[in-house]
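User: Fold this one for me? It's CCA tRNA nucleotidyltransferase.
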Amino acid sequence: MSLPAYLRAEGPQRVFAALPGARAVGGCVRDALAGLSVHDLDMAAPFPPEVIAERLAAAGFRVFETGLKHGTVTAVLGGAPIEVTSLRRDVTTDGRHAEVEWTTDWDEDAARRDFTINAMSMGGDGVLHDPFGGQADLVARRVRFVGDADQRLREDYLRALRFFRFQARYGGPVPDAEAVRAIRAAVPGLARLSAERVWSEIKRLMAAPDPREALRLMAETGVLPAVLPEAGEVARLNLALSRGVTEVVLRMAMLLPVGTDITALASRLRLSGEEAARLRALHAIADAPAPHERDPDTLRRFAARARIRSEAAQPAEILLVAAAAHPHEDYAGLLAAMPPGLGPAFPLQGRDALALGLPHGPRIGQLLAAAREWWLAGGAKADHAACLEQLRQLAEAETS
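Assistant: Here's what I get for CCA tRNA nucleotidyltransferase.
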């Protein structure tokens, strides 16, 4: 086999020269064989990590000890990073973490990997090393554990979630029966996983071109209710796929039923503040009935209410979430009629009330809310001057 283009670049060529016997490993080999773009280049070498770091530095790389405890350094040349890891064998495992020793045995290193399609490697001579039949599994669209599936899962229960991510991207219509059996038996072990790693795997799965079958299999094996009990019917994503929705958080919002406690979910899975805010925004008015009228005033009013509830989501996005929750309502027609962009913003702020001479206090908020309802009732069209006059009239009516 000739050397693929991604290994003919200067970076990997320098690694091969500095570390005799080094090979590209894992995802880059898998994706190149699958005809996909290679984004992350991982390599391995039969040397201890300190020797790897020293030799790569001498070869002109900037070297960062990003995971020295686990045998990994990151070598950067011309802005392009390459992760280089020592060959390893497991000494002890506890279901999530492993104590490792360095080895020079490539088969030992391959035997500790999760799936056959991730256990392949390729040296600088272009020879593919495939001790567990990963290339055949890739062609057959079969995601299969290396060796004993139960043992692989006992070593690291996160592999159960990784299985579904890889199944969504590389698997065929019939999943590996042994893998499914072992994962079903391993569900109790998922409780040992950290929330951050669970959310990371869920996001990666949801980013797959079509995650629906993998999600259905997760539900059938008991994995989905174990890690994401809030999830609704997978069919909720039908609209997302038909509309070309690829954003992970928007897909998640469409999967979650209306009324989901987003705050509790965000806390449990350790979502970022931005992710949590966007989920809340997307669910802001998803439980509101779709307006049946399609006149401009009604559409502006709906879009304006969406903006009032949240600045972090477009009205059309909120409608997608609502449509996923209420497939029998005519959200499709509303989506088609909805103008692009955020709805109009209410023209007044607290400083406008103060400029009228209204005293500080909670009454300002109440008067602004009343003026805003007047603005919405008129189709959210009144400008700043008209809204200010309405606020003045409301304040005078209150004191008269």
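One thing worth pointing out: The beta strands are 23-25, 41-45, 62-67, 72-77, 80-86, 88-93, 98-102, 121-123, 128-129.
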